[in-house]
Design brief:
alpha/beta; 12 helices; homodimer; 2 domains; 13% strand; 52% helix; 7 strands; Rossmann fold
Chain lengths: 322, 322
């Protein structure tokens, strides 16, 4: 049964979690109403701060997210959470696996938590993630937390999606630091060494400091990622983490970085949508036979891939005019 | 000094290694002559068997490649090697690092070895790799070996490029098997456990057998990846490996898989070239301002990314006729 998109958007903006959920399902499913929903949401988006939270398995991402939700709620801020599970094909309102730790907030009408699977997506986050974040933003969330395990492309993607990226580590996870060397230094706006009551927390902090120092001097106005220690399960370090997020947000605004990052993000999103549509047009040319015929011609040595690509592009241009 | 592309192609086909090298530099550099070169090469490509060779660092890829080169040369086959280093920005005729092990073949006119860096490329192999392989193919190589370290996207890419993919493992590399679980089972046409004179080789072979068994029954006509043992540094197991490659090649031809794989490969290559060109067109629209203006409009809530993408696509269509 199709509910009018305008109704869904209106209800979502009033804080109805079912309507928020249906809008996210709509963008995830790339349904025909997707465009209508995005157009209806556009005027209302942009108010939320987007926080990315990433780290290796076992560092306490869900517990930290839960701790942050409580802190934001205590400030009266509405919170949306997208818990991304790159290994799962499942999406939906259901809380999966670890996410049970966030369930204490499940009945709070000021909190919306959504699990999203991304399996099948080529590396990293689903293309639906930025759109689901936009739904939460337009629905009136003050903070949108995007939480995902820090493996490979996903952690780079999350940094591209978030205004502020928190990289979570835990003591005694040599792998974490190794992974960190690979790319975390570039994406982290805030480091949090969680489980800081365990042996080795000091060492992890020192390792991070050394890595940051090795990365060389930063320009005078640059943001220097703070290294915090937390014990999320005991709610220790929460105030400091929230303060660091607020400080980074203030720096983003003052330095003009927020606008620059969001412009870059919008640009990437528009381009991805356009390229996806163009790929579909290519696949559909001449009822889906054109690319196959050109491939056969390349195999037969009758043409080369560049000349074949030129013909595809020309055909798209021609079909645009119908 | 621009040498006529037709001359380069003619000389490359006569076996002149400098001309082969210049053609590869030309495709790597995406020079203006690239299209001319591809068109000139097209009628001559398709004769070579492409062998992908991948595995974790330290399993002996270069030594195995060198052993294979010697075996193919003994059969009178001409061999081209693309040694891909995903961590290096450098490309060229020079032999880098490990590749010194292949240097015994450097003066053999029937062998062409090329190192290619891919740093900066988003995950995996450079887009230039299939075109460099086509140059070697058209230049008369009977076998083109594409060798790369098996990390992340690169090993998936190599399987998409090669007719036959060899996954190399070594005893006592638990990581290798872990990585294997993640995706090697799907890409390997032949497994070779190298350094088989070391402790634990039997265990590695057994692990692989178990993993293959767990993957479930295969259709009756399917290729079952053989698990070989080699000691590349002592030239042990060479004949068996070459025989396995030949057997897989025969299966590819008889089953029709070779044509299917090559059609899929040509299709992906054409599409990639077309999409890259379309991305460039998008970036250039209205002297490069259109995407930026649309991004600003999305940020201001005046439009949404889908409507913005529609306008980009319409503009491309219009400029095509310009």
């Amino acid at each position: 049964m199709a509910l009018a998109v305008a109704d869904l958007v209106a209800r979502a903006r009033e804080g109805d979690p079912r309507s928020v959920g249906r809008l996210i399902s709509l963008v995830e499913g790339a349904s025909p109403q997707l465009r209508e929903a995005m157009a209806a949401l556009a005027p209302y988006a942009g108010g939320a701060t987007t926080v990315g939270l990433t780290g290796s398995p076992g560092v306490g991402k869900s517990t930290t997210t839960s701790m942050l939700i409580a802190a934001f709620r205590a400030q009266g801020r509405r919170v949306g959470v997208l818990a991304i599970d790159p290994s799962s094909p499942f999406s939906g309102g259901a809380l999966l696996g670890d996410r049970i730790r966030m369930q204490e907030h499940a009945t709070d009408p000021g909190v919306y938590i959504r699990s999203m699977g991304t399996r099948g997506h080529l590396g990293g986050l689903s293309w639906a993630t930025p759109q689901a974040a936009r739904v939460l933003d337009a629905a009136g969330c003050d903070v949108v937390i995007i939480e995902t395990v820090g493996v490979g492309q996903a952690e780079v993607d999350i940094a591209a999606l978030a205004d502020t990226t928190v990289v979570l580590l835990a003591p005694g996870m040599g792998d974490g630091i190794q992974a960190a060397k690979a790319g975390i230094l570039e994406i982290a706006d805030v480091f949090a060494v969680n489980k800081a009551d365990r042996d080795g927390a000091d060492l992890t902090v020192r390792d991070l400091r050394n890595m940051l120092a090795l990365a060389g001097p930063r320009p005078p106005d640059a943001w220097i990622p703070p290294i915090l220690t937390t014990v999320a399960s005991a709610n220790q370090g929460t105030d400091e983490l929230v303060a660091a997020l607020d400080a980074h947000r203030a720096w983003l605004v003052e330095s003009g970085t927020l606008t620059r990052r969001r412009l870059a993000r919008a640009s990437a999103e528009i381009e991805t949508i356009a390229v996806t549509a163009l790929r579909e047009q290519i696949a559909d040319l001449r009822d889906g036979t054109m690319l196959a015929d050109l491939s056969a011609a390349v195999l037969a040595g009758e043409t080369d891939p560049y000349a074949a690509a030129d013909r595809l592009i020309a055909a798209i241009g021609a079909e645009d005019l119908g």
